[in-house]
Design goal:
Chain A is mainly alpha-helical and 339 residues long. In chain A, 76% of the residues lie in helices and 3% in strands. Chain A has 14 helices and four strands. Chain B is mostly helical and 291 residues long. The chains are: A mainly alpha (339), B mainly alpha (291). At the A-B interface, helix 4, helix 10, helix 12 and helix 14 of A face helix 3, helix 4, helix 8 and helix 10 of B.
Chain lengths: 339, 291
Amino acid sequence: MNKKLQWISWAVLVSVLALYPRIFGIYYTNVFVTFAIFAVYAVSLNLLLGYTGLLSFGQAMFFGAGGYGTALALKHIQGIALMPALGIGFLAAIVLAAILSPLVVRVSGTAFAMLHLAFGQVMYVLALKLRGITGGEDGIGNFPIPNLNIPGIAAIPMKNDPVNFYYFAVVVLGLSLWIMWFFTKTPFGQLQVGVRDNAKRIDYLGYKVPQIKAVVYIFSGAFAGLAGAMFVLFQDMVSADGSLGILVSFNPIISTVVGGMGSFLGPVWGAAIFQIIEEVVQRFTERVELVVGIILILVTMFAPGGFAGWMSMLKQKIFLVRPPRLQPVATKEILEKVS
Amino acid sequence: MDPTTSLYVAQGIHGLAYGMILFLIASGLNIIFGMMGILNLAHTAFFMLAAYFGYQVVAWTGSYWLALLIAPICTAFFGIILERFFLRRVHALGHLGELILTVGVGMVILAVVKIFWGTESLPVAVPPALMGMVNIAGLDYPVYRLFVIALALVVLGFMGLVLYKTRLGKIVRAAVSDADMVNALGINIPVVFMLVFGIGTWLAGIAGVAIAPILTVFPGLDGQVGMDAFIVVVTGGFGSLMGAFIVSLIFGFLSSYGIQFVSQLAPVLMVLFMAIVLAFKPNGLFGERES
């Protein structure tokens, strides 16, 4: 029965996703793509924050590395196909994470957060100053976006075709989410949570804590980079403020906290909530910042478990469902570990 | 004296003044962090708020001196409200909750400032008594910068006296090393925390009013100077006033001479310095506290 229900809900989800552009029109299709990109970005941050207990104020540098990598590839390499360009963005983020990892895995807590703030700012300032490569404040725009070639079957145009891009984005981002979810379910994912809860014990058990952190770090950076690359393809434009700014770093943290830390789908909920809030608030006022700030204050004060924590509480109260034995939402413990 | 030397000296004075302002902000951050373990990310928003308060007082009364007195006190008042009614409630959730809360508060302050004062740069005039240049040993110095340096030194001397010569200072120093124990000795620690938070934001307020005539008042003040102040605290070591002082001065000189020699890369220099320090000493130059 349960299995059947699962299949039915998957089928419903897939058909809704497939029909979405027809039902809601172009505008909301684009809104959904933005949401999906930032959802993947937020989940990548949550791999560090919720699952490993590392707070990073500089996740934007991977988002930006992916974005600039893809943009530069499209601009300078003649006739590059879509997937290789995306792959270059993905690789750029991996390389950056691999370079930084030996340094950052040795610190944790506030030092980790601040070190990332610093590196994030370095990247941001460099992107502004190295005009020859990055275009400075103007960024890079109007690069050609190639068709998606499926060899022997079709060449699907992407440029100026939001519906095609929507399907492409849903497949790529959905796959990324699935891979990240799978990652947390592997034995290695268990180790990751172990590092968060008691790094010393993991060490005593014979695992190497810095190496575990490094793998998670690179993994997280890679998917942040993929999200950044998709964002750049979507906007046909990359800029320092849009891809590397401090607000870009805060965005996934806010989504994660509002959605619920430590729950896999929490950041996705958070990204959705923020997309909706932005859409609604923009109709009435330009002060999106004010509303976001107030929401952050209210969430930290009254609902520290975020949306996911609130949902599971509701579920327990209404349906009298027993909490799972291995609770994914251990927000309070995470909060203590991070500090 | 030849013009090159005087240029260097003038840049040095600029650097020193900027370093002193950074230190005023950073010391407020540091006192709060050392005592309560809270990294107040709204601190720089308070600094910006004080600059706006200062602008408003000058606009109403025309007196810069009154602004220097009133604006920091108003800022401290808001700081105390933040501690008493917001931070205290999330304290049990650990530091991440506090970090996120202060980020939210910073965003709200920034938005409110934009609503009340708009986004353009508002000039604050240097008071007539501090205008112009003064000639010392054959070199011209801008009086206002010298005043800023002197002001910072006076404020810090005052803080030092309070910290090391009064009963309150003794309590604060004891609470830095073990707040629970001091609480158990019958001293009302929550009130002390509130007071310390007020003093920290007051210091940021002084810095805000002091910098207003130099940089003018605009919403980006928060990010521009504030980021530097955070970097100072992190590089100097959390909770270490000595570290903050030395790093503030280094950064002041780095920024002024950096602009002169490698203007393109000046903003990167500080962050690079921080990255190098943290690579070898994750707790900062003088940081002892396990962060």
